[in-house]
Design goal:
213 residues, alpha/beta, Rossmann fold, 2 domains, 6-stranded parallel sheet, 6 helices, 15% strand, globular
Amino acid sequence: MYKPLKWLMGLSLVMLMVIVPICQAYGQTASVGKKPLIVYFSRVGSSKSFQGVDAVSSASLPKGNTIVVANMVHYAVGGDLFQVVTVDPYPSSYDATTAQALKEQDANARPKLATHVPNMADYDTIYLGYPDWWGTLPMAMFTFLEEYDFSGKTIIPFCTHEGSGLGRSERDIAALCPKAKLLKGLAIRGSSVDRARGEVEAWLESLGEMPKR
């Protein structure tokens, strides 16, 4: 009467031995973990020229540099994408936008946000993407980082720039989220984002964040 039970136990063991290697081959594990969240801010999607348009899904919309890198990160690690959008849009002109960004920085402003993450507790790893504006994050990202409790979470920053690199943004993130674990960020020059996939993947690999495939 015990033979069927032994047979079922043996079959279960064989299935487990098959399933685990398959999961490992695709960079997965037998247990379900939390997905990463790729958060990004871009002038595209936050300015008057692009207000109300999905900056990721619209085929006709010119992609902002930070959006391009955010999509590369998303392709590499999976998870969810989230765009930080302000209530009040930025000017259509790039020069006018950077002038407004400087005024916001000088005033230590906190622009109100139109988008919010309803389930931040579901994520342990947050990739944080932004353009370098005047040596640090856009002030909208200050608003975002102050809106949630990042205690115990891992924050991985990446930025696009035209010569200033990450600036002081990593120090500002550490000050805003003192109880989070901050990993080394990546800075990519805006003019080279279309050719940056290899650089993005090498950076993720160096952090141990690149899933095995």
